[in-house]
């Protein structure tokens, strides 16, 4: 059986004799005198580090703080980072939050149709609520799209494509479907705890 070890940088399983990780390029420590016990201790230490990993880095970049995006955590991330363009937003988090907004808009529309026709006072307050919602959503959507561009290692300036009729919206949609860049880029490190679960 070939001896193996884990890369201390990306956590991938490697042959024991490699000098550099073929996945991330990290120089590998010598494991020549290591026993199976040492390797087991190292693996346990790596697992503990994965569980306590904090995605915020020393530069203060904003990233999703959740290791597995879902409707609730993505919604919190969407509105929690509403005024932050820096950082990254994963593809899953972006699309979960987009689904949240669509569902909220459907519920609000049904509410206004049902209540608006029966009670004039309630419809007045509902109109104010909807107006506030329609002011907040574009701000949050623009910043989320900028963070999503950062996650695929593109400048947020590509958001300006959305002003090109027809073609711009399609281009933005296609960009939002791109996979996240697994390694760090100029906009910050990805949420490695989530990426390690995928591999």
Automatic annotation (TrEMBL):
One Pfam family this sequence matches: DUF805
Coiled-coil annotated residue ranges, if any: none
Transmembrane segments: 95-116, 122-144, 156-178
Biased composition (Polar residues): 36-54
Biased composition (Basic and acidic residues): 55-64
The protein's name: Putative zinc-ribbon domain-containing protein
Keyword list, A-Z: Membrane, Transmembrane, Transmembrane helix
Domain Putative zinc-ribbon, residue spans: 4-26
Region (Disordered) location: 36-65
Source organism, top-level taxon: Bacteria
One GO cellular component term noted in the UniProt record for this chain: plasma membrane
